[in-house]
Every structure is written in structure tokens, then in C-alpha cells.
Specification:
single chain; alpha/beta; two-stranded antiparallel ribbon; 8 strands; 4-stranded parallel sheet
């Protein structure tokens, strides 16, 4: 089984209430090889919700208590992001997932780049909170930019 960000399966789970559908993933879903996740919803955040960014590092730093996830209104949503990451890991382990295709740039799901915490649309190298936790537990995470269906 493979975890897939639910927004990339066409569900309106993004922070802005929209989706980020990636057609390439449809055949994995139709074949019953994928499980959908939205870590931010699993952490208890509503949809839509204010955009959030990691301040002071990346997802690994959040796991280690060295950085926070703050929304655009200045609210600390770190606990919700940590809870969502933990719930996602629990789901991954329960279905035996060894891989995940998660939404790039997200403070939960980014696997190469995340927004830099200034809310100016600027990105930096780094991973989201859920990606960091999955990777620490041996689950390979890629983004929609790296999909190779032959290797999933």
C-alpha cells in the first residue's frame, strides 16, 4: 500500500478548501493500492483553514521541539501538525505502507521544499512535519514531482 495526500486524489482537503488533483495517481487508487491521508485534518484542523508555515526550521526541527508551525494569523498549530503526523504514521503502519506520495511545499507533506515561514510565497529546502516522521520510521516519501508509477 502507498499513502497519498488526499488533495492529490481530487478531494477538497487543501488549506484553501480546494484540491490539487494529480491524474497519474488515479490508477493506484482504482487498483486499490493506495490509502488517502490529510495529516492536517487528522490533526484536528478544519477545511478550509488559515495557511500555516514552519518557523525556525523544517519538519525534523518541529519533531525535535526546535521549530513551530504558525498560521498566518499568528496562531501556533504545532500540536495539531504533530498529532496529524502521528495519526498518519499510525495509519501507514496499520496498512503496511512503505512509501508515500505527499503534496510538495506543504508544512505537513513537503518532501523537498517547504515555505520559509515568512508567508511571502518563498520556498526553502526542507521537509514537512509528517514527511519527517514517516522518514524517521523508514517510510519513503516523494512528491507529485517525482512520481514514477513503475517504481511505486
Amino acid at each position: 500500500m502507498i499513502l497519498i495526500s488526499s488533495c492529490m486524489a481530487g478531494l477538497a482537503t487543501r488549506y484553501d478548501g480546494n484540491d490539487a488533483h494529480v491524474e497519474q495517481l488515479d490508477q493506484l487508487l482504482q487498483a486499490g493500492k493506495a490509502v488517502l491521508v490529510c495529516p492536517e485534518q487528522l490533526g484536528g484542523l478544519p477545511t478550509p483553514r488559515p495557511p500555516a508555515e514552519i518557523v525556525g526550521g523544517d519538519g525534523y526541527d518541529v519533531l525535535d521541539g526546535k521549530a513551530s508551525v504558525i498560521d498566518i494569523n499568528g496562531c501556533d498549530v504545532t500540536e495539531e501538525f504533530l498529532k496529524g503526523a502521528q495519526q498518519t504514521l499510525k495509519l501507514a503502519l496499520s496498512v503496511g505502507a512503505k512509501q508515500a506520495v505527499l503534496k510538495e511545499h506543504s508544512p505537513s507533506c513537503g518532501s523537498s521544499f517547504i515555505y520559509n515561514g515568512t508567508f511571502r510565497g518563498e520556498k526553502k529546502d526542507g521537509v514537512g512535519v509528517t514527511t519527517a516522521l514517516l522518514e524517521r520510521n523508514g517510510i519513503r516519501v516523494i512528491s507529485e514531482d517525482d512520481i514514477d508509477l513503475d517504481n511505486l
